[in-house]
Every structure is written in structure tokens, then in C-alpha cells.
Predict the structure of 3-hydroxypropanoate dehydrogenase.
Amino acid sequence: MSLDTADTLTDDLVALRSIDDATADLLFREARTVKVFADVPVTDEQVHAAYELAKWGPTALNTSPLRYLVVRSPEARERLVSHLAEGNRAGVLAAPLTLVLAADTEFHTLLPRLAPHAAAIADGLAGQPETREAMARMNATLQAGYLLTALRATGLHVGPMGIADAAGLDADLLAGTGWKSLFIVNLGQPAAEGASYPRADRLSPAEVSTTL
């Protein structure tokens, strides 16, 4: 086999493993952050289907510390919005469904199952709560990015938001779990009008990268 033929085969394999333009548009280029949703229900099954995709994304030692609280009932919604900025409350109350994405600081207890090759690390982490929380937050935030993309891949639209009083939310909605909230995500289908702000610019590779 000539080098030219080998290069052609490599290019063909790369092309086969790449997503097409329609998928790239769905997940990234044409996907929008939604602020106003249509009155279309979102089921737990839809959310879980997205997680079934997202869970395969890499994390350090396969720690997989992302957790999510499905906030559905009116009572739970009212409790949730009490910990948010005033300007975000109406949007959350009107959204079909909201998730609280969180990091499980007790992730180490599952390491014997998730990372048998590194199970001994669990014992050392047991007495290091600050290290565990830092690891949990980093890896759960990584997984949260996977989940947002997976939600789009399963046909949902997302509107992530910050939490004004994360400590208060944790004490109210996540007490006794070891979970630490990261941010929330509204889910659903976009409203016919006013669903998103106009598309804003993005930075180029030249603006965000350097080479050593």
C-alpha cells in the first residue's frame, strides 16, 4: 500500500467518525439557549435518556460525580426559586421542567465499582473532604457539559442558569445527600416567539488559544 493510499484511507475513516453538518447544527451551531419555553411537557424518561448518553463521557478515574435533582412539583419549584436571582424566578416557574445539577462529594464510595483499578484511593479520600469536593466539582462540571449536549441530542432545548444562594439551596433541597449544587437547567421546547436572545458573537480559535 502506498503512502498516498494510506493517507486517503485515514481521511476516509476520520470522515466516517465525524458528525454531519445537520448534527453539528443541532448540537452546537444552530442550538440556542432558551429563555421562554412552549407549554409542552418534559418527561423523566426524556431526561434519563439524555443521561444515558452523557454518562459515557470521560471523568478522572471514572468518578462520575454528576447528580441531578428533577424539580417538577409546584411546591419544589417555589422552594427552588427562593434561592435564585429575582430576574430568573419567573422563567423557572414557567419552564416545563428544571434540573438542579450537582456534584456528589461522596463519589469516592463508588470507586470500587466504577474504578476497580483504583479502589484503594477511596480509603485515602474518605478523610479528605476538601479534596473530594474539588474533584467532585471539576468532574461534575465536565459531565454537566456532556449532559447539556445530550439533552439537545435527544430533542430538548436548554436554558442553564446560575444559583444566587447555592448554600441555601443545598441546605433546603439537597440536605443529607452530600450533593453540592452547580447550576440549574430549564428544559423543554422553545416558545414560538421570543424564545431566545439574538445570536451573539463567539470567539475564534486565534483569540482563545496559544501554542508553545
Remarks:
- The chain has two domains: 1-29, 31-195.
